[in-house]
């Protein structure tokens, strides 16, 4: 399979990840546990799935600055995002988290001294404008702490994308980083959460299992495979489909319908991300050299 088709396949896999990730908002809201327990419990399940996949595919666990950096970034992003969902609106939390592309640009330029192209800056700007429009009629001041945690979730998510990309084509580094992330989250979140959670119901346990398997475990296995041929900025931009689908699940299960600003924002995101992905998938190695 040529790099051209591998890249297109990786982008499609990232889109599937985004849809599965979008299940998070509604289930986190339905669970009454302490945010740390939610984050830690779902990460235990996710770590088991990722560990089993690595064992099955005979991928060794590699500890290096890239895998550890990606793990720390993803772990902190998960914890901050779950907490933000409890302290502010789901819309606020996910909009602030998906400022990640902006932080990716800043990190790649300042830390790794990579040259940024005008097209990348324009795509990020349009995508962020679309997300703001999408939630404009749902945004509220919310909790200051919740909003701060949402911003931190975006910064840490950007760190994960950048460190995963810097790890190169080594699948073991990517998988190890994701495994480390969920192990860290479980070790930090579960003990603190279990000590501060009053009650646990069977329904909530089921919701956490859904989060661990279908919202984190399986999607991150797919992401680790896709990120080999999908650049970090592309992963983050396609991941913006998550805040697009998140309100769809809310509309289906809760009956909350998006307003005109949200529909306009959805159109902006779909057109921008789709156009950019098509443009990128048509670029061959020869084109890049030119």
How would you portray this structure in words?
This protein has 290 residues and is mainly alpha-helical. It has 14 helices and no strands. The chain has helices spanning 3-21, 24-30, 35-56, 65-87, 90-97, 100-110, 118-134, 144-166, 171-195, 202-226, 232-238, 241-253, 260-281, 285-289. It starts with a helix and ends with a helix. The model is unreliable at 284-290 (pLDDT under 50).
List the SSEs and their pairings.
Blueprint: H1 3-21, H2 24-30, H3 35-56, H4 65-87, H5 90-97, H6 100-110, H7 118-134, H8 144-166, H9 171-195, H10 202-226, H11 232-238, H12 241-253, H13 260-281, H14 285-289
Helix pairs in contact: 1-10, 1-12, 2-10, 3-4, 3-9, 3-10, 4-5, 4-8, 4-9, 5-8, 6-8, 6-11, 7-13, 8-11, 9-10
Helix content class: over 70%
> Largest sheet, described in full?
none
β content, as a range? under 5%
What is the H/E string? Answer: HHHHHHHHHHHHHH
Q: What overall form do the CA principal axes indicate?
A: globular
The end-to-end span amounts to: 23 Å
Structural descriptors:
14 helices; globular; mainly alpha; disordered C terminus; 290 residues
Brief sketch in words of this structure:
With 290 residues, this protein is mainly α. Helices cover 78% and strands 0% of the residues. The protein has 14 helices and no strands.
